[in-house]
Amino acid sequence: MTSSGSDAHALALVDQERLGAYLSDVVVLDGPPVVEVLSGGRSNITYLVRSGAHEYVVRRRPLGTVAAGAHDMAREHRVLAALQGRGLPIPKVHGYCQDEGLVGAPFYVMDRVRGRVLHRRSDAEDLAPASAAALSRSTVEVLDRLHRIDVEAAGLAGLGRPEGFVARRIGRWLDQWRHSAHRDHPLVESLGARLAVAVPESTDATLVHGDYRLGNLLVDADPGSGGVPAVAAILDWEMSTLGDPLTDLAHLMVYWDRTRGRLTHESQTIAEHPGFLPSTTLAEAYAASSGRDISGLDFYLAFEHWRAAIIKEGIYTRSLEVAGAGAETDSDTAQLGRSVAVHLEEARDILEG
After folding, report:
1. Domains of the chain, CATH where assigned
2. Residues 222-279: pLDDT tens digits?
3. Spatial distance between the Cα atoms of 272 and 195, rounded to a whole number of angstroms
4. Which of 30, 77, 104, 205 is the most exposed place for a label (fewest CB within 10 A)?
5. DSSP secondary structure string for all residues of 286-328
6. What single-letter DSSP state applies at residue 118?
7. HSE-up of 319 (CA within 13 Å, CB side)?
8. pTM of this prediction?
9. Edge-to-edge strand order for the sheet containing 93-97?
10. Alpha-carbon Rg of the chain, whole angstroms?
């Protein structure tokens, strides 16, 4: 199934009348809403809903088989609702609906935030070097603010168990790997064993996003009136929990640039545009602003590459499932499949020093 085919499938799942009735109870509408697919395919499906001057976003899990606990829209809504008015750039949320009959899965509703998502270098081609540098600094500053959230005050103290966070995550990702369809990648098991015995002792726990990277940020790259380019909204909170903040920093770095020359994601080409700061500079800025010791960052980089390999293998196999038997694999899906081995090679090389 092509991307446009996936979008058509996602749109066909919408019961326009029932969705409109639900929305009329939680947001302001000026007439019957018009629904279109804003983004979808391999990740969570995002619908854009227009009604007069009002625009809203509806998010649900992706098509195909989803691993237990993954793409949790209830969790995402809970976190966003708790973080309203707490100094982070996030959308306003309006409601969560468990009824799968409206869009084919449980979903939540939020305001649409205007901004740009930088997925690849071509998305940043019009940015002046000074703007690229400002966005780099804003990305780090917002991450530091995220890690300063008072989880007790926000009502999120029960969101996760920070004790033994990384060690538990290694076990859970290995368990997911073993119980999900996948190709033969022996490095997953061997690297998982090596990571499990090398977990740094951590005395620090914060709210963590779980997937903090440029592709999950809306940026105001053209603020006008002398404003400074900055992060406009943090999206995709489904993997947020309480844990080690250095996992967020390492995740950002993994998707920021290709430090060893290997390309695992096209987002790594963005930092090659003039003005963007290298990931090592981002890490130094984060350490300075947060006061955290990042001397053990290599472990976290290896862990995040390893985790990315498991996640991408799941997305890859689900993409093949949605496309159907005998369907031709598109170039993006093929590249996704190839990147799994590259992430594992990166993790291996980092651990071997």
Report:
1. 3-111 (3.30.200.20), 121-351 (3.90.1200.10)
2. 877 567 899 999 999 999 999 999 999 999 999 999 988 899 999 999 999 999 999 9
3. 30
4. 30
5. HHHHH----TTHHHHHHHHHHHHHHHHHHHHHHHHHHH-TTPP
6. -
7. 23
8. 0.91
9. 34-39, 45-51, 54-60, 107-111, 93-97
10. 20
